[in-house]
What does this fold into?
Amino acid sequence: MNDQLGTCAADGQSLSQVNEDCISGGKTCSLEGMCRPYAGDEIGVGDANSVSDQNPEGTLVANVITVHTSRRLVVLQTFIPPKSPPPQLRWLVYEQIGNAFVAKVDVVVTNAQDLKNGVADVDQFPLEPGKTYLFGRVLSAADSTLNTPVSSMPRLSFGSVVGRLSLPSAPSSIDIAALAGLQTDVVSFMRMDTLPP
It folds into this structure.
């Protein structure tokens, strides 16, 4: 909880005793309950029910995540089908500010190896507790996403997944009303690496 390990309190929301403070040691707390130099969180990975989904070019496909613990985002990764990789990979991170999600990170990947692996390096973007973010990518021609049906949204080491959102384009600002189209029974394959704040 908040990058601390210990004994759960009776309320189930806090710790009655802190056994180890990962942050004081310059580390993050992983989902496995261990202090690590960084946390690697995966959404929809390794699920036999995952299906590939074809979308029009320019579609923004994003997982909506509420952050509970301060972190710095350093890597985003997606599934790239074994066929030829797309000509580029564009990742965006939107932060909720008032009644809109505002694009704060916009990274275009063109390096062949990174494209093959679906990886984008993000320049240690700060994630703040209590805020909601959209982590997504814009699909290029003949690109697809790998989606996983879920009965409950996955937990992450730094927050929780709220759902998946698909929009026909990736504007610099998205009105909060777009969340009316939020899917809560499916997530898009994604891996995120975070560092302590």
Observations:
- The mean pLDDT is 84.
- The first strand starts at residue 4 and ends at 8.
- The CA atoms of residues 91 and 107 lie 5 Å apart.
- The chain has one helix and 17 strands.
